[in-house]
Design goal:
The structure is a homodimer. Chain A is of the alpha/beta class and about 450 residues long. Chain A has helices spanning about 5-10, 15-30, 40-55, 75-80, 90-100, 110, 160-175, 195-205, 240-245, 250-255, 265-280, 290-295, 315-325, 325-335, 340-355, 400-420, 435-440, and strands spanning about 1-5, 35-40, 60, 85, 115, 120-125, 130-135, 150-155, 185-190, 215-225, 225-235, 260, 280-285, 305-310, 355-360, 375-385, 385-395. The first copy, chain A, starts with a strand and ends with a helix. Chains A and B meet through helix 1, helix 2, strand 2, helix 3 and helix 12 of A and helix 1, helix 2, strand 2, helix 3 and helix 8 of B.
Chain lengths: ~450, ~450
């Protein structure tokens, strides 16, 4: 994998494309042996392509396909392979149409994005101006003999790269290399330490249940506080995704109450699904998170079935006016307190009109902490029926980290209560695994 | 920069260390020419070090310093340089102390972390068990002749790496290489195409104003829709940050109304600053963004001076009950319409109590679009005094993209109105430049 751009090396952007491509490659059964980032310099791009290209079957390249003078990937590939640039008139028309639709003028530099190294296959970009291309560089040769790699260039904009990778590149790769996917299963855990997770798994391993193929999987642990992802990856190509499902029951049992789902669905998506199953609506009242919890819930398509809305009660007078939190309660306990978090949850449920209310109030920092309530002190409450529950959190870290974990812990508290009602489902819902149809033709 | 670890290549973790080191290097005046990630294999680590090391003055290495069998960085450096491993008894004692303090036993594999290639300087790790080391590899030689690089190995845990880099590595680098920071200036633009930005800059370049040192800077363009960052980087070390400020006036003029700031402050931070200058408070009413605009505003520390709160009016009845949008207006124009966006902005201003109200209503997708109002149709409105303004957006892309750009465009509309009042300031506010004290001893 080669990512191109001064902004990547300068650290202006965190290179999420490499992680994404790494995951997709692994799922496809392609071993990633190196990731490299180079500057926007034709010679440096070409040198990296030559050196890496001599050792691999596939070079996945991202970035440098834009319209500006520092976008040099296409030129570098053409120069390295001694090919001319050919303008694709279909792409020119598409650019004209796209610019006209947005009422913008197509300037000459934009036409550069319609140029491709001779013999390339254009990869359409339905959501951006930079198409990608697939270029067979067999003539580049391989260090140990044999043909050179396929060079696949994609735009650096993550959403465009992701769509191009899944919709266009993966099917072509699967076809060309008769790829077999590597079975993999992710168990999503909450509010538990990484070492505790490993300790529990080690205990299961020692039990040596012959029905479970522990020796044929590799166990990964990945933390994104407050979540831990436990991943099983088949080390034996004969092991299918279905075989890995044998681990579900023992792992669910071992992590009862801590595991909120199997697969890629987020906690917010699981909560939305559980609310829908329970036919309950929810409203949120947010102080220190300022709308973050609402934004997490509304990331989920179709959330309008269960999410009504809420109040961002940043100022105390909004807590009073819009949520009915009494001035006395605020004065007696302070805005960051259990009674106020509960009053917010109850108030938003009543005022906005929902079955369940969630309240968050805390000190995200960097200022505002006291000895009793240091930065990172957050109360999250859930009000449902005539019961309310509240958690006091002591979150370390930055303002952003405190806010993220507070919103996630509020979702977790909601999930727990839905779990007690029996409304949650942790079944695998994966939709981002590579399309099995891609591989069908190669399966016995 | 070399980051080591299978987990980085597999995409299990996003490699934030590289972005961090890139930022620190740029600020120090070290040009980062390549970033590479390799697997946990001694031969592959050594090969990368040899190849990169033959072209650079400094190799910054992260990862592979842990106690487990797949931590191979130290061995790879020692093998490459033909040095023996020497155990550092001070580090052994420190490990013993650390393990005892946590009630854990020091197992033999942990002692590995006290071994360093002969002649290395140990870099203490005050917050973890893996010390780093600074190893002069002059004997490795350089491709074009001259001495080989300094190889600096740091742990892969981001918090440990960051602390080691700033506290121990940067002062040593500044001292050894008499570093001068590279002047750099970022101009932040909004709602303008990348190619238009370049077109305008090209026009300025052609004017060839001798007062402006265009020939001594490199121009970068970076898009994060709806923002474009235009960056000037001095290619001449004699050019100071103050010299680059000469570009401010012509660029501000050329991008009048499109440039919201110079430096690293976000649009939300600029809006908060302008509201504070104008002594105005703001409240938000969000439908399709579901709290995202509120979350962007509340990312800014100290926002409580100007941000009151708001209403997440996802369901129509919340638009009616909590914002006073009339049922007739909703029925006549639909929830996604200019009149409703304006009524939301006016309603939240009045109900929540603020000087300025912002309303967002739209169709983020993937479902809910119609022929008249396809997915991506969003209305953003700002109500202030007796005036209201509304924009109709047609945003392409994913649900997440539509939501992000809608919230950003709402901030932009607010910024524009504050600009018309003369309340905005686009001056450079950068505070994340490196400590000038590091460079003081080398300055004339």
């Amino acid at each position: 994998m080669i990512t191109i751009g001064d902004e990547v090396l300068a650290g202006d952007v965190v290179d999420t494309n490499r992680a994404y491509l790494g995951q997709r490659c692994r799922a496809l059964g392609l071993a990633v042996i190196e990731g490299r980032s180079v500057r926007d310099r034709t010679a440096e791009i070409a040198a990296a392509l030559r050196e890496i290209g001599s050792r691999v079957d596939v070079c996945l390249v991202s970035g440098g396909l834009g319209p500006t003078t520092d976008d040099l990937t296409t030129i570098a590939v053409a120069e390295l392979l001694g090919r001319t640039l050919v303008r694709d008139e279909t792409v020119v028309e598409e650019l004209r149409r796209r610019f006209a639709a947005r009422g913008r003028e197509l300037v000459p530099t934009n036409l550069k994005q319609a140029d491709f190294p001779e013999g390339s296959e254009v990869l359409a970009n339905p959501i951006g101006t930079a198409p990608g291309f697939w270029c067979d560089a067999a003539d580049l040769g391989r260090a140990e003999g044999g043909p050179g790699p396929v060079v696949i260039c994609m735009p650096g904009v993550p959403s465009e790269l992701r769509r191009m990778m899944t919709e266009q590149v993966e099917p072509r790769l699967a076809q060309r290399y008769a790829l077999q996917p590597v079975a993999r299963r992710t168990y999503r855990l909450l509010a538990i330490g990484e070492s505790t997770v490993q300790h529990v798994v080690d205990g299961l391993l020692r039990r040596d249940d012959s029905a479970l193929p522990w020796s044929r999987v590799f166990v990964h642990y990945r933390a994104r506080s407050p979540e831990i992802f436990l991943e099983l990856e088949a080390t034996d190509p004969e092991l299918s995704a279905r075989d890995l499902a044998a681990f579900d029951a023992p792992l669910c049992e071992a992590f009862a109450g801590k595991m909120y789902g199997i697969g890629s669905a987020s906690l917010a998506a699981r909560v939305v699904e559980a609310l829908r199953a329970a036919q309950l609506s929810v409203a949120v009242a947010e102080s220190c998170t300022g709308g973050l919890l609402g934004s997490y819930l509304t990331e989920v398509p179709g959330v309008s079935d269960v999410f009504v809305g809420g109040v961002i009660s940043y100022a105390n007078r909004v807590k009073e006016r819009s949520l009915g939190v009494s001035a006395e309660l605020l004065a007696e306990h302070g805005a960051v307190s259990e009674p106020v978090a509960i009053a917010m949850a109850q108030g938003v449920r009543e005022r906005v009109g929902a079955d369940v209310g969630v309240g968050i109030t805390g000190i995200a920092g960097p200022d505002g902490g006291t000895v009793d309530k240091p930065v990172g002190t957050v109360f999250v409450a859930v009000a449902h029926g005539d019961r309310s529950r509240c958690l006091r959190l002591r979150e370390p870290g930055s303002r952003a980290g405190v806010r993220h974990r507070s919103a996630m812990r509020a979702l977790a508290l909601l999930w727990e209560q839905l779990a007690e009602r029996g409304s949650v489902d942790i079944a695998d819902l994966d939709t981002d695994a590579p399309d099995p149809a891609l591989f069908a033709t190669h399966r016995r």
